[in-house]
UniProtKB/TrEMBL annotation:
It is found in: Cell inner membrane. It is a multi-pass membrane protein. This is C4-dicarboxylate transport sensor protein DctB. Its EC number is 2.7.13.3. Member of the two-component regulatory system DctB/DctD involved in the transport of C4-dicarboxylates. DctB functions as a membrane-associated protein kinase that phosphorylates DctD in response to environmental signals. The chain crosses the membrane at residues 12-29, 291-310. Gene3D superfamilies: 1.10.287.130, 6.10.250.3020, Histidine kinase-like ATPase, C-terminal domain, PAS domain. It catalyses: ATP + protein L-histidine = ADP + protein N-phospho-L-histidine. Keywords: ATP-binding, Cell inner membrane, Cell membrane, Coiled coil, Kinase, Membrane, Nucleotide-binding, Phosphoprotein, Transferase, Transmembrane, Transmembrane helix, Two-component regulatory system. Residues 372-591 form the Histidine kinase domain. One of its GO terms (molecular function) is ATP binding. InterPro entries: dCache_1, HATPase_C_sf, HATPase_dom, His_kinase_dom, HisK_dim/P_dom, HisK_dim/P_sf, Sensor-like_sf, Sig_transdc_His_kin-like_C.
Length: 595
């Protein structure tokens, strides 16, 4: 169930991660798409500013021309009918050529053209009447005239700029210059731009798109149409609406013309009623948007991939580290296990060695004791022999009724011998290794019995404290006995140099037993020379001995120490205040055994 829960939460976490990543990508893509649009809008605005200034520069270049020409006296003369037309024509032709305008001409007060730069061409303006043109009426009213329209003579469109000709404060005629702005349109076309200029009525008069020329951006009113007709501004043109829809489906900055969609920017041309439109085809916009989005998408994808890759690598490294750590720990464990096995083996070997040493120690003791034992046994044997001889005599004399005490003596003697050999048997038997309740007092008694003849031979007195209770420890009888044998024999060895004939210097071994609720304390002291200060710290070290070679091997106390430790006890040695050494053994008592 918990596994299921964790899988579930892991799944929901990954899902949340995917959703967040998706959201971030969507936001990035969307904002970059919008960024692309706003960049395009900025470009459009910059282009509009540029094209407006080019248009204004083109117009400004020629604006001065009618003004200057209107001040020429030959022109003034010719317009008032005093001058020579030829001279005026020549003059206009030359100036026009220099300026690069389409035509430069002079109109008299009735609207007739009296002289023109194109006087010698089939499309000559000379003789034409332009009184219907607003630029004429405006200039004749004393203002500068501006007019864009299709030339009635040439059929070519252009911008007409006019200026009044004054003589003695009276307006006597008009000078007009016609500029053709085809080159501007061509430049737009060559640049692949979609640009157009609409006039005050919304008629598209300049455009990079030929099919839009003379179409209107909104339907003309009847009045407007009538005025345009009257001015013959766009003669021969139907001036149909362009079928233009601004902000289709409510989207700002969008323009739909026919089936085409554009992003558009518009700028009024200052000082006129014209508007300059800059259109960016939506195809291009979406292309640009798509490519920017695609780049962002790929970029985001790449970033996500990199992040995933890095994460994957991190995870891989972490798992590698983990498995390396695991392998290290495993190797460590194996080593530890090996070490434990080795230690156990060594421990077992040591125990074996210790057991063997105990045994060896016992055999050594046996060797030393054999003389005493032989002596002990020889006595009863001699006595038995005597008793047997006297029994034989009694039988011969027929005094068989006196045999009873004799046989009793013999049996008592054999019992004594049996007890000696029994002790030896007990002593030489090997430890079973099985722990059992051991009575300390009984063990001590066994040892004293065993060593009694040796103690006696060496003139040593053994004193025991009055301790009534039984001290039962959980141990191995044989090994506990070995402990006491080792200590008592060491005490005897230490006192060997004391002259036992000297009544003052008595050889004594004092055994003191005591017990608390859980612990037995056995103190075995002697009246020997004690232990040297430097020796005290080394006593229990294996092979430490102060005895002559052949006398000791230095294992007794180290074995003793090991045995006491095995039974959960402790042993220490110190010098008694009154002289002599004391060995104090403490052993844990079996629960509830102390009486
Ligand atoms: P060993 O008896 O073979 O020398 P032990 O380990 O039994 O080995 O004893 C080590 C040493 O401890 C002895 O050589 C002796 O110097 C010192 N020692 C042991 N018991 C006594 C004692 N009762 N009095 C003085 N020295 C002792």
């Amino acid at each position: 169930m918990f596994y299921w829960l964790s899988t579930y939460s892991r799944a929901s976490l990954s899902f949340a991660g995917i959703v967040i990543a998706g959201l971030v990508v969507w936001l990035a893509v969307n904002s970059t798409g919008n960024l692309a649009i706003s960049q395009l809008q900025q470009t459009a605005q910059a282009r509009l500013a540029l094209y407006e200034s080019t248009l204004r520069a083109a117009v400004d270049r020629y604006r001065y021309l009618p003004y200057v020409v209107a001040r020429n006296h030959e022109i003034v003369d010719v317009v008032t009918g005093n001058g020579t037309v030829d001279i005026a024509n020549q003059y206009l032709q030359k100036v026009n050529q220099r300026s690069g305008a389409a035509a430069l001409y002079v109109i008299d007060r009735s609207g007739n053209t009296v002289a023109a730069s194109n006087w010698n061409t089939p499309d000559s303006f000379v003789g034409q009447n332009y009184s219907f043109r607003p630029y004429f009426t405006e200039a004749f009213a004393g203002q500068e005239g501006f007019f864009y329209g299709i030339g009635v003579t040439t059929g070519r469109s252009g911008l007409f700029i006019s200026h009044p000709i004054a003589k003695s404060g009276e307006i006597v005629g008009v000078v007009a210059v016609k500029l053709e702005l085809d080159e501007l349109e061509r430049n737009w076309q060559d640049g692949g731009e979609t640009v157009f200029v609409s006039d005050a009525d919304g008629v598209i008069m300049l455009t990079s798109r030929g099919d839009w020329k003379y179409r209107t951006i909104r339907p003309l009113t009847d009045q407007e149409r009538e005025r345009i007709l009257r001015n013959r501004q766009y003669s021969g043109q139907e001036l149909l609406p362009l079928n233009m829809d601004e902000n289709p489906s409510g989207e700002d900055g969008l323009l739909e013309i026919g089936n085409e969609r554009f992003l558009f920017e518009v700028k009024p041309i200052s000082g006129s009623e014209w508007n300059l439109f800059y259109l960016t085809p939506m195809d291009y916009v979406s292309e640009r948007r798509t490519s920017v989005m695609l780049i962002t998408l790929i970029g985001s994808g790449l970033i996500i991939l990199i992040v995933l890759f890095l994460r994957e690598r991190e995870l891989k490294l972490a798992s590698q580290r983990k498995s390396m750590e695991f392998a290290r720990i495993q190797a460590l464990n194996t080593r530890l296990e090996q070490e434990i096995t080795e230690r156990r083996k060594t421990e077992a070997e040591l125990r074996g060695t210790q057991d063997e040493l105990v045994q060896a120690g016992k055999l050594a003791a046996l060797g030393q004791m054999s003389a005493a034992i032989a002596h002990e046994i020889n006595q009863p044997i001699a006595a038995i022999r005597t008793f047997c001889a006297s029994a034989k005599l009694m039988l011969e004399r027929g005094k068989s009724e006196n045999l009873g005490p004799n046989i009793e003596q013999i049996s008592a003697l054999t019992e004594r011998m049996g007890s000696i050999t029994g002790q030896l048997k007990t002593f030489s038997r090997k430890s079973t290794g099985v722990l059992e309740p051991v009575n300390i007092r009984a063990a001590l008694d066994n040892v004293i019995q065993l060593l009694s003849s040796q103690l006696h031979n060496e003139g040593c007195v053994l004193e025991q404290s009055d301790f009534a209770g039984d001290l039962i420890v959980h141990a191995d009888l044989v090994r506990i006995e070995q402990v006491f044998v080792n200590i008592i024999r060491n005490a005897l060895d230490a006192m060997a140099s004391i002259d036992d004939k000297d009544p003052k210097a008595k050889k004594r071994i004092i055994i003191d037993l005591s017990g608390t609720r859980d612990q037995a304390t056995i103190r075995i002291s002697d009246t020997g020379p004690g232990i040297g200060e430097e020796t005290l710290g080394l006593l229990f070290d294996p092979f430490f001995t102060t005895k002559d070679p052949g006398q000791g091997v230095g294992l007794g106390l180290s074995v003793t120490y090991g045995i006491v430790r095995d039974f959960g006890g402790s042993i220490r040695a110190y010098n008694r205040a009154g002289g002599g050494a004391c060995f104090e053994i403490q052993l844990p008592l079996m629960r509830g055994t102390q009486k």
